[in-house]
Design brief:
Elements lengths: L2 H23 L3 H16 L4 H24 L13
């Protein structure tokens, strides 16, 4: 691994750590998704390596939020939603 690749990997891991800390501080996932969407709209107009990295991180965050929501769901059965007469 070259020095440039190592630095790039190190920078990515540091960026991800900061973002994960920010996600923990967010009041709810809805606020995070709104922020990600706003930043994503701005990034769509940019070209360059930094814009690509930020875009990849934002997509990763969206995926992580969806996974967290799916994991927090509770199993139910169909009869839970109907009253017996």
């Amino acid at each position: 691994m070259s020095d440039e690749q190592w630095l790039d990997n190190k920078a990515n891991s540091v960026d991800e750590q900061h973002v994960l800390e920010a996600l923990e501080l967010a009041s709810n996932p809805h606020d995070v998704l709104k922020a990600v969407s706003t930043i994503g709209k701005y990034i769509d107009d940019l070209n360059g390596p930094i814009a690509c990295k930020i875009d990849a991180l934002l997509k990763s965050f969206k995926m992580q939020l969806c996974l967290d929501d799916a994991r927090s769901m509770k199993d139910t059965v169909l009869t839970d939603f109907f009253q017996r007469v």
